[in-house]
Amino acid sequence: MRIDETVAAIVTGGASGLGRATAAALRAQGAKVSIFDLNAEAGANVASELGVTFCQVDVLSDDSVAAAFEQARAANGQERILVNCAGGGNAIKTVSRDRKTGGVKIFPADAFAWVLMLNTVGTFRCISRAAAGMMTLDLIDGERGVIVNTASAAAQDGQMGQAAYSASKAAVVGMTLPIARDLSGEGIRINTIMPGIFNTPLMMGAPDNVKEALAATVPFPKRFGEPPEYASLALEMIRNGYFNGETVRLDGAIRMPPR
Questions:
Q1: Which secondary structure element, helix H or strand E, spans residue 210, and what is its range?
Q2: Is 153 inside a domain boundary?
Q3: What is the mean pLDDT of the chain?
Q4: Is the pTM of this model over 0.70?
Q5: Which letter does DSSP use for residue 10 in this model?
Q6: Per-residue pLDDT tens over the stretch 127-150
Q7: 242 belongs to the catalytic site
């Protein structure tokens, strides 16, 4: 898929981190970009800085997502590119003991379900909405559109307390190939990136000693990934017409330890 001023793109989670870097990279290639994000202030600031359209959206809501796609299409036309970076998680062990009382605590099922709804269902909600729109487009160079998802290295080697997060990201990995097959007859490709430890706003807020210890666990290079490195891979997945149904780790060869 070519990336130029004739192509519209949507990036979810585009107000920060991996999504912001991807929106910037797409815009640098001339694409008409809309960013989806729940944070209205950050989204408006990034939109002004990058020259993109901001749509406030909650990926947990069908109505919110539908309205955001309508707004983005009114501004830029039907998108041919969707990059899903919206998501989040929590850190709760399946069961644990209270340090003071010794009482047993259980990971609340509703807290587990929330992470799956956000990362898995939220991603799928945007995929299906975008794919439906892409199906209305004419073929260009044999294809109508491209979708890139964000999973995590935790999908394969989640740490303690990451049962919900790992399950949600493993589900994104697991649905990539079936969706690629579902969309194959329509000329729409889909791939997924599994980032390792990246220098995102959440990670930047950690204490220096914690960041140094984490960076030391990466075999090479011994540092965090940078968001433009994620964006570079996302753009390659978009451009390369034979890249389809794949999930790729981007992690400096790290394999996460238990904790």
A1: helix 208-216
A2: yes
A3: 96
A4: yes
A5: E
A6: 999 999 999 999 999 999 999 999
A7: no
Q: State the SS3 of 21-62.
A: HHHHHHHHCCCEEEEEECCHHHHHHHHHHHCCEEEECCCCCH
Number of compact structural domains in the chain: 1
13 in Cβ contact with 36 (< 8 Å): yes
CA angle 224, 200, 124 (to 5 degrees): 110
Tens of pLDDT along 32-56?
Answer: 999 999 999 999 999 999 999 999 9
Q: Tell me, what DSSP letter sits at residue 213?
A: H
Is residue 255 situated within a structural domain?
no
Query: In the block, which residue shows the tokens 């140094």?
Result: 212
Question: Which residue type is seen at 4?
Answer: D
Angle, vertex CA 139, rays to CA 47 and CA 145, nearest 5: 40
CATH classification of the domain holding 26: 3.40.50.720
What six digits make up the tokens of 145? 């559109």
Both tokens of 13, joined, read 């989670």
Catalytic residue selected from 54, 112, 165, 230:
165
Residue whose C-alpha is closest to residue 22's, from 232, 258, 226: 232
For residue 224, tell me if it sits in a domain: yes
CA–CA separation, 99 and 93 (whole Å): 14
Q: Hey, what are 192's tokens?
A: 């997924």
Q: Does the structure show a pLDDT above 80 at 206? A: no
Look up the domain containing 221 and give its range.
Answer: 8-250
**Given CA atoms 205, 24, 167, 252 in this order, what sign does their dihedral have?**
negative
Distance CA 12, CA 148 (A): 11
- Over residues 173-197, the pLDDT tens digits come to 999 999 999 999 999 999 999 999 9
Asked if the structure places residue 20 within a domain, the reply is yes
What DSSP line would sit under 179-204, residue for residue?
HHHHHGGGTEEEEEEEE-SB--HHHH
